[in-house]
Design brief:
Layout (H helix, E strand, L loop, with lengths): L2 E5 L2 H4 L13 E10 L6 E11 L4 H6 L3 E4 L6 E3 L1 E8 L2 E11 L4 E9 L17 E9 L10 E2 L7 E2 L4 E3 L3 E2 L5 E7 L40 E4 L6 E4 L5 E13 L2 E15 L7 E3 L4 E4 L3 E9 L5 E8 L22 E3 L8 E8 L10 E10 L7 E13 L7 E4 L8 E4 L15 E8 L14 H4 L3 E7 L4 E4 L11 E9 L14 E4 L7 E8 L5 E7 L14 E9 L7 E8 L9 E7 L6 E10 L6 E6 L3 E2 L2 E7 L2 E7 L9 E8 L8 E8 L6 E4 L21 E9 L10 E4 L3 E3 L11 E4 L18 E8 L10 E9 L7 E7 L4 E7 L4 E9 L11 E3 L10 E2 L19 E9 L5 E5 L19 E11 L9 E9 L7
């Protein structure tokens, strides 16, 4: 997408910018960048780059030394100006540089506050009294290595014209190859800030520039003016200014690695808007490219001006290693080859420039390089405005392809390993990071897949390859033994290798050509694990296998033996030997089949392995040669659905059951048939072994027997899988049956919710002695099913749900089988609680909840008004009369007639023996009491109740 810029002659700007040099900084823009400079400490170099107007504000620019950095910890530090260089006759770039060592990892906010902004900024009230504050956030973590923030290589000096779209691109470059993202931000600063202030605050009263002016429409006249930033490219565009003047905006460049944001910098910049009739020049750049390291990139850039003005071409971006003022921004990279762009002097229109870059292996990285080209016209006559156009060119560089990959089986036949070799890598380890690896990928089967070096790194995995190992880039061999588990014999393997650079660059090479190899087959192949009958104690599975190829029965190593092992489950590993079969490998002998009986094929799948033994001629003893891959029986599950049965099946076998037609059989008799073939199911990929039976019979050869799926009937199934080993093992089709399994469909309707009732308490009719000394309680529930409604009447049980508190979720308490419709909830600590009942149909569907019923306690508390603590055993204690009921917590406080507290207790007994809290008897007389009591009730959040009263304590005269 083409974007446009405009820059203005500074002499023209002075005509309408009235500034007070004593206060204004004439600061055009700036940002703060960082880089870690020590691998043994958390020491960073922090650089602030600012751009100053040297025509109207040279005095203020001269005085801007030092500046004060806040490093996110500790006080502000004065940092002297390190450099001051001219970009053009009107602008200087000022560099302030400091080092700082952080005490530990963390996220730190680096700021610098400069006292005054320019006067008369249109979208900042009282701008000359408002500070200019820059900010950068970094994540300090040793694990990020010598990380640096991105640098902004395009100077922020672009001006705008009324009614014309204005754009700026910072030409951000991250030397570590981290991903960048962009977003707009409100400039920071506040009125009255002094240098050294570390508190961040956005500008008060800041206005979006698009809100200023009368005719606020975009350049095309199709909508309102907008201010946007492209989150990926970084193009900041104002489409379009409505009035002349000076404006400030800010945007953030975010730095991301592995999906985690590790920093962000803010560029705050001014935009000068003028009016001009000049027409902007046109720019043509090449399409984005993706090349191999070592390629010489040479591209022509063309520019024309409609007014036939002379033009100047320029370029910015990481490949040049040049900062906005024309200096090398990272001298440490001087050993690399950098790009050039010529000429950058004025030319007549049409003009051309040449971009040239000799790439090398050090330039490889996952993120592309962005180059920003710009053309500026040079209008004739004084006081005219220059216009500019900008476009981006993106370059991605990948590493060369590894060459001469070969593969061969290892010499040890029992090792089941493959040895890979390849040529020394063309880039050489010296030109690549030390952590660069050669990654080895493997998959079963060979094909002619091609890989685009410019696509993402997930292409190998998408093609079925698995990373089986990584070695140092200088290594040229690898032995693959499947992590000491051994590779499969007879399977054809495809290998590819690829160079992978370490993070953060994270680039990679072209994928190598494949090499195909297979281990010779020297042991049998299991071909069948098929379920013959389905029972819980007498199930039967038949196992078949082939004779070992490549073994000559007459070579003197016989006799031979097969040993059969079995484990329980699709992925079972508890193998135990179940048979030994001696053989001479004669084809007329039926010694490659075994019938395994007495199994629980209802509950389990079973897994088998065969070990092959030969006779050692020297010792005459049997020696193990090798073992087959494990192979399981087919496991089928059936789940009842609405007027249908959902079937799924799976098997854990060394052959492939994909891309074949599996067969589904149905019976209404039982899990052992007789069965009728009802469907042939095409299976394309793993994990899609499913079939939904709605009663149809789509296979006519054995007679069509459709059924109407009834919720009152059970339907039984078994599945026949069809599979095949990959070439060159065998082309034989392998047919295996699952166990039989039965299921019932369900109806579309649920049961109706019951109507629930609970036995109630009449608190008013209870005597004071009710429930006295009773420690457990019970609630009785009864319910009825509605006689009307469209619902399932086939109820098999009821589920009772309960909570001791109203307003809380109920949990399952118990269930009772139909037709019983009553339940007694016993052994409760109180009556309080809420209940619901739900009916469950024969198909397992649960009704909506019944009405909720709650039952509460009848609390009771009564206190006397006199007691005589004289030790005669009668009325010696002040305590509740009769039986208090359902008290959860209680507190008794007693005060004398003058309000002085004499006793306090939290005992549930609520008793007082006439003594104070120190154990001394109090004198007789009238005392006031307050009882704060919380009763157990269905409202668990109910507040405590307050009981107040008086009691007279009687003693003999003279009592203390």
């Amino acid at each position: 997408m083409k974007t446009y810029f405009l820059t203005t002659l500074w002499a023209l700007l002075l005509g309408f910018l009235v500034l007070t040099e004593a206060q204004a900084t004439h600061l055009r823009a700036g940002e703060i960048t960082t880089r870690r400079i020590s691998s043994t400490s958390l020491t960073y170099e922090v650089t602030m780059t600012t751009y100053h107007d040297e025509i109207g504000g040279k005095t203020a620019s001269d005085q801007q030394d030092p500046s004060y950095f806040c490093f996110g910890i500790g006080p502000a530090v004065a940092v002297p100006r390190a450099e001051r260089r001219a970009i053009n006759r009107a602008t200087t770039v000022n560099i302030y540089r400091a080092t700082f060592t952080y005490p530990g990892p963390g996220t730190y906010r680096i700021t610098c506050t400069i006292t005054n902004r320019n006067e008369n900024v249109r979208n900042i009230p009282n701008s000359i009294q408002t500070s200019f504050q820059l900010e950068t956030i970094i994540v300090v973590n040793a694990g990020l290595g010598l990380n640096s923030t991105p640098v902004l290589l395009n100077p922020p000096l672009d001006s705008a014209r009324v009614g014309q779209k204005w754009c700026h691109n910072p030409a951000a470059f991250d030397a570590d190859g981290d991903s960048l993202a962009y977003r707009l931000y409100v400039p920071s600063g506040r009125i009255g800030d002094e240098q050294g202030n570390c508190t961040r605050r956005v500008v008060a009263g800041y206005s979006d520039p698009t809100a200023i002016g009368v005719n606020r429409i975009n350049e095309a006249g199709t909508g309102p003016a907008t201010l946007t930033v492209d989150a990926i490219t970084g193009d900041v565009c104002w489409d379009a200014p409505a009035e002349i003047g000076q404006y400030n905006i800010a945007f953030i460049v975010e730095e991301w690695r592995d999906g985690v944001k590790i920093g962000e910098i803010i560029r705050d910049m001014q935009i000068i808007v003028t009016a001009s009739p000049n027409k902007r020049p046109a720019l043509v750049v090449p399409a984005d490219i993706c090349v191999e390291a070592g390629t010489l990139i040479q591209q022509t850039i063309r520019a024309t001006d409609p007014d036939n003005n002379r033009v100047e071409l320029s370029a910015f971006g990481g490949p040049f290693n040049v900062s906005p003022d024309g200096q090398q921004y990272n001298p440490a990279l001087i050993a690399k080859d950098f790009a050039t762009f010529t000429p950058t002097t004025a030319q007549n229109t049409p003009a051309t420039g040449t971009f040239r870059w000799q790439t090398n292996c050090a330039h490889v990285r996952a993120e592309p390089y962005d180059v920003v080209f710009r053309v500026i016209d040079l209008p004739r006559g004084s006081g005219q405005t220059q216009l500019a156009t900008l476009e981006s060119f993106r370059i991605r560089i990948y590493a060369p392809q590894p060459k001469n990959l070969t593969a061969r089986p290892a010499a040890d036949p029992a090792g089941r390993a493959i040895i890979l070799n390849w040529a020394a890598y063309s880039c050489g380890s010296a030109s690549l990071p030390a952590e660069t690896k050669m990654a080895i990928y493997r998959k079963e089967g060979c094909d002619q897949a091609t890989f685009d070096p410019c696509s993402d790194a997930g292409a190998l995995a998408a093609a079925g390859y698995v990373n089986v190992g990584n070695v140092a880039i200088g290594q040229t061999s690898y032995t693959d033994n499947n992590n000491n588990q051994g590779l499969k014999r007879g399977v054809q393997y495809s290998y590819r290798i690829v160079v992978v650079l370490p993070r953060p660059n994270n680039g990679q090479s072209v994928v190598s050509e494949q090499v195909c190899v297979n281990l010779p087959q020297q042991v049998p192949l299991i071909t069948h694990v098929t379920v013959d009958s389905t029972f819980d104690t007498r199930g039967v599975i038949t196992v078949r296998w082939t004779r070992p190829p490549g073994i000559n029965p007459q070579d003197g190593t016989g006799p031979f033996q097969y040993r059969l092992f079995r484990a329980t489950g699709l992925t079972g590993t508890n193998f135990t030997q179940i048979a030994s079969i001696n053989t001479t490998l004669q084809p007329t002998v039926g010694d490659t089949v075994y019938t395994d009986r007495g199994l629980n094929t209802v509950a389990n799948a079973y897994r088998y392995r065969i070990e092959f033994y030969y006779t050692d001629p020297a010792s005459g003893q049997l020696q193990r040669l090798d073992a087959t891959e494990n192979a399981s029986s087919v496991r089928l599950t059936a789940t009842g659905g609405v007027r249908r049965i959902q079937l799924t099946w799976q098997a854990n076998v060394p052959w492939s059951n994909d891309n074949k037609q599996h067969r589904v059989y149905r019976s209404k008799t039982g899990p052992n048939g007789p069965f009728n073939l009802v469907a042939v199911v095409p299976v394309t990929t793993a994990n899609t072994y499913t079939y939904t039976d709605q009663g149809a019979d789509t296979y006519a050869a054995d007679g069509v027997q459709p059924v109407t799926m009834s919720i009152d009937s059970s339907y039984c199934y078994r599945v026949e899988t069809v599979g095949q080993y990959s070439a060159p093992l065998t082309t034989l089709l392998l047919n295996n049956y699952s166990q039989g399994v039965c299921a019932m469909p369900i109806d579309t309707t649920r049961p109706c919710p019951p109507q629930l009732a609970i036995d109630t308490l009449n608190c008013a009719s209870l005597t004071p002695d009710a429930f006295c000394n009773q420690t457990t309680f019970a609630n009785t529930l009864t319910w009825q099913n509605p006689s009307t409604g469209d619902c399932d009447r086939n109820i098999v049980k009821y589920r009772i749900y309960y909570s001791p508190c109203e307003g809380q979720d109920l949990t399952l308490l118990d269930s009772v089988n139909a037709p019983l419709m009553t339940y007694r909830h016993e052994n409760l600590m109180s009556f309080a609680g809420c209940y619901e009942v739900r009916a469950v149909s024969r198909s397992g569907r649960e009704s909506a909840p019944s009405n909720r019923v709650c039952k509460d306690n009848c609390p009771y508390l009564q206190m006397p008004n006199v007691f005589t603590p004289n030790g005669d055993g009668k009325n010696d204690v002040f305590q509740p009369t009769r039986c208090p009921r359902f008290i959860e917590t209680a507190e008794l406080t007693v005060v004398n007639r003058w309000g002085v507290k004499v006793y306090q207790s939290s005992n549930l007994s609520l008793d007082w023996d006439g003594k104070n809290s120190q154990g001394k008897e109090v004198p007789g007389g009238l005392y006031l009491y307050q009882i704060t009591v919380k009763f157990i009730g269905v409202n668990c959040n109910a507040p405590a109740q307050i009981y107040k009263g008086w009691v007279e304590l009687l003693r003999e005269t003279g009592a203390n």
